[in-house]
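Known limitations

Structure tokens in this collection are predictions and should be treated as such. Users comparing against experimental data should check residue numbering before alignment. To illustrate the layout, the record for Phosphoribosyl-ATP pyrophosphatase is reproduced below. The input appears on top and the generated tokens appear beneath it.
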Amino acid sequence: MTGDRFTLESLDEIVRTRAASEDPGSYTARLMGKGVPKIAQKVGEEAVEAAIAAALGDKAGLTGEAADLLYHLLVLLRACDLPLGDVMEELRRRTAQTGLEEKASRPRG
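Generated tokens:
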């Protein structure tokens, strides 16, 4: 992290370090030990909680739930051996065109 700037990459680095640790007090290490299905379940739970907070107009709740969702998503990416950089590159590629053009170019299925 540089200065006070905190990014998804900063969080990803923290997740990477903690996921590799054997610290019994690390929630990240414990989650990694439970495997992809449990981490994926947590991502789903946090997404639903974020959506509910948004629907209720609860900005404080949404802030916390969005933070939980981003964290758990990064843990899931790590558990699936999918680098955040790959996701960021996909977002960069998608934003190089309009949203409707990008959506039309996706495979149907």
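For this record: Residues 59-79 form the longest helix (21 residues). The radius of gyration is 16 Å. Please report discrepancies through the issue tracker.
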